[in-house]
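Schema walk-through. Below, the input block comes first and the output block second. Nothing else is stored per chain. Lengths vary across the set, and this one has 50 residues.
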Amino acid sequence: MAKKTVASLQTSSKRLSKAIKMVKSPKTGAYTFLESIMEPEKVDDFLAKK
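--- output ---
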């Protein structure tokens, strides 16, 4: 499962988005969250990776 935040961040003249992905740990079975700030075009690739 993954979720995308709606808020977009702006720094200088670049437009950035923050993506949050929920990842299940294979060792413990607990869920953790990975956060990353990137260009909007790369968000779908980040969420598609396992």
